[in-house]
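Record Acyl-CoA synthetase, 526 aa.
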Amino acid sequence: MNALEDTIAAARSTRLDSLLTRSAERTPHAAALRFEEREWSYAELEAAVDRVAVRLLGAGLSRGDRVAAYGLNSDAYAVLFLACARAGLVHVPVNFALKGDELRYLLEDSGATLLAADPALRATVKAVFDAGGAASVRQVWDLLPPPGGEGHPSVLTTALDPAPHGGTEALAAVRVDGDDLVQLLYTSGTTSAPKGAMMTHAALMAEYVSATIALDLDAEDRPLVAMPLYHSAAMHVFLMPYLALGATVRLLPKPDVGQIVELVESERARSLFLAPTVWVPLANHPELATRDLSSLTKAQYGASIMPVTVLARLRERYPSIGFYNCFGQSELGPLCTVLRPEEHEARPASAGRPVYFVQARVLTANGDVAGQDEPGEIQYRGPQLFKGYWNKPEQTAEAFDGAWFRSGDQVTKDAGGFITVVDRIKDVINTGGVLVAPREVEDAIYELESVAEVAVIGLPDERWIEAVTAVVVLKPGASLTAEAVRAHVKERIAAFKVPKAVEFVQELPRNQSGKLLKRELRAERS
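=>
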């Protein structure tokens, strides 16, 4: 084995939070995390994680219990995740936009015994309990103290309180192995009910190594983390690897474009990850011309596909920034492939090549290895891979082909090993017995200057089986006709791929991670 493989082998007997401990030992007084007006040194953050872990165990939780986190980004949110890892508990990140039956489902499916939530979300939590849901939840904590100062136990208050809490002996007795669960990472549920991907300490540590290598992460990057921490990319591709490196991370509650522009300048940030749905408005922000963003050298995008034309505009506007395309899935922590800055010029539409601890193959529908540039499903294996879906053995079995995870993504692989995503297999349109990849049609429509966003879907049709349909969002003040869209597409791709119908809407449905919810578009129109 080489040095990196030795590191992962050793990690199998090490809990994930030890990465923070080592940074605190190396640089105890260096700034680790900044959130709003608070700044935590590595020594302070290490002590805060200890305090919260002790209190969790003192509250009666035991190894393997699930702890749900329901809120916006905060220093308390980050501390809770690390404290769960230290205490041998399983962290369950919950999308803060969920409510009602959606929230109830995740709490019940995970069997969470404790829920830590933002005070602003109390009414949503109360509604679930009042309806008789989430019976497994025995305790509710606040992530941050409420404005009035009264309420449930608070993660932040505990993190800042040096007074001892019952549970110190229990924490000292905790034994966590690298193969133990540390998080139930729920899939976004764009095609079905969310499933909890069982992530282990060792799997995520392997992912941190892959991310650090593929994205050139460095302790001097001064990264901004603005995307939601409940999503695996922000937490596991950026926040945690950067803390392991000893960087100073500026954490934002949410991806506010104005605040991002301001902080890149004031903090001299070098690294910034955003979903394409945030990069686009940032590129058009009116203050860009007057702000000094020269410190920014690394720009990562992912969570959804970046339109090629939008990427070209960004690269032209910011020639000194190196762009990284991050592609992956929750089940691998999530980073699977990366297109590096020097690779963008030749292959701007590519998702890159597999990261260090991910092995990939492409199979046709018949199960044969796909030839060069032949479409097929990409499958993955390696130490980053999840253990399976929580309490869902049938779905777990369906997701695997032996040791290989079936991604559900249709891709091609070229002679250089570069992956290009064609589409989700379930989104491919069967029109008149011929398959159409929606992304190809979308890329053609994005060439139109008036178009802000577009989604191409297949709708039931007596003649065509599925009719290619374009749902378009126009830029403010722009005008465009369906006939003009169809004529433009017809000039660029085969006639059978031209939309049979074009619909103009104000916005497209997306989840909080920026992923387009095509199933909602189809359901509304079927």
